[in-house]
TrEMBL record:
GO MF annotation terms: electron transfer activity; heme binding; metal ion binding
InterPro entries: Cyt_c-like_dom (IPR009056), Cyt_c-like_dom_sf (IPR036909)
This protein's UniProt keywords: Heme, Iron, Metal-binding
Alphabetical list of SUPFAM superfamilies matching this protein: Cytochrome c
Name used for this protein in its record: Cytochrome c, class I
Organism, as annotated: Rhodospirillum rubrum (strain ATCC 11170 / ATH 1.1.1 / DSM 467 / LMG 4362 / NCIMB 8255 / S1)
A Pfam cross-reference name: Cytochrome_CBB3
């Protein structure tokens, strides 16, 4: 699961959130590395449900439950193993 999350993060998240989730994406979010797996899951679930207003929203709206779980697991792993 972590390898799937790493692949998704690299393709869809890294440019805005940074290699280790250290950036505030578009200067608007908290760095994802500061969030727990539960907070990541909740944030992605909320973004998937709202109407897309940007390219980032369209990317998030296409995530499956398995994708969200994999991303949350991966991001939690990079916080503990940079």
């Amino acid at each position: 699961m972590i390898s799937e999350g790493a692949a998704l993060f690299s393709l869809s998240c890294r440019d805005c959130h940074g290699r280790a989730g250290e950036k505030a994406a578009l200067g608007l979010s908290r760095p994802v590395a500061a969030l727990s797996a539960a907070e990541i899951t909740a944030a992605l679930d909320e973004r998937r449900r709202r109407p897309p207003r940007s390219m980032q929203d369209r990317i998030k709206s296409g995530l499956t439950d398995d994708d969200v779980e994999a991303l949350a697991a991966y991001i939690a792993s990079i916080k503990t193993h940079p």
